[in-house]
Amino acid sequence: MNSDPTLPAERTQLILQELRQQGRVVAAELARRYGISEDSIRRDLRELAAQGLCQRVYGGAVLPAPKAAPLRERMTQDRTGKDELTARVCTLLQPGQVLLIDAGSTNLAIAQQLPGALGLTVITNAPQIATAAAWQDGTTVQLIGGRLAAGGGAVGAEALAQVQHLRADVFLPGPCAVDVDTGVWAMDAEEATLKRAMVACSSRIIVAATTEKLGARGNWQIAGLDDIDDLVLTTSAPPALAARFRAAGIAVHPTPP
């Protein structure tokens, strides 16, 4: 069973291209398309995984979650994409809302541009985000305390207890990965516990994701697809991936608005 006219190296590149556009590949579907065995496809996927280009999952593969650089570095990465996300997220906010903002470089960019005229109340576990939001006239800021994690946000029992007594109109998570089948993921267990509590206390979940986080999975799930109300993407996001999120019932907002 080997009618595939492409060389193995060419085939793995085609599989990688599809993975980046769709966010997931299924071994059985690839085997039928190329007219080869599923074992051959699994060897291709193992090769891609060994290079760190995919993450093996049952029946196929997804993109690997991007490795998190220190927050200092992430603040300067993909400024164009973050500016696009910031502009769109700000249009989704309503006057007087209580906005719960998780740690993260994209969320920091959003906090720096929050419209003061909206009279928002910002609650955050990230000191840098609290400071940025406080610079916006008309914005009230409440800081969640706890142990400061490497990602720039407070975590631990104290932070969790505070979140469990909150109610927010909107939550902006700091996602490590956003998978088209399973939702939003984190890479750290303690951070994931706090993020799940933030999801639970919020009425609307707006996920702003740079392109490298799409179609990937982390180690700890923080929200399923059903939990996400709005997904804000940059103009560089693959259209096929955006369409799959939209088909799942999520309001997808390409940028700029």
UniProtKB/TrEMBL annotation:
HTH deoR-type domain location: 8-63
InterPro entries: Carb_Metab_HTH_regulators, DeoR-like_C, DeoR_HTH, NagB/RpiA_transferase-like, WH-like_DNA-bd_sf, WH_DNA-bd_sf
GO molecular function ontology, one term from the record: DNA-binding transcription factor activity
Taxonomic superkingdom: Bacteria
Record keywords, A-Z: Repressor, Transcription, Transcription regulation
Pfam families for this protein: DeoRC (PF00455), HTH_DeoR (PF08220)
PANTHER family associated with the record: GLYCEROL-3-PHOSPHATE REGULON REPRESSOR, HTH-TYPE TRANSCRIPTIONAL REGULATOR SRLR-RELATED
Protein name in UniProt: DeoR/GlpR transcriptional regulator
Organism of derivation: Stenotrophomonas lactitubi
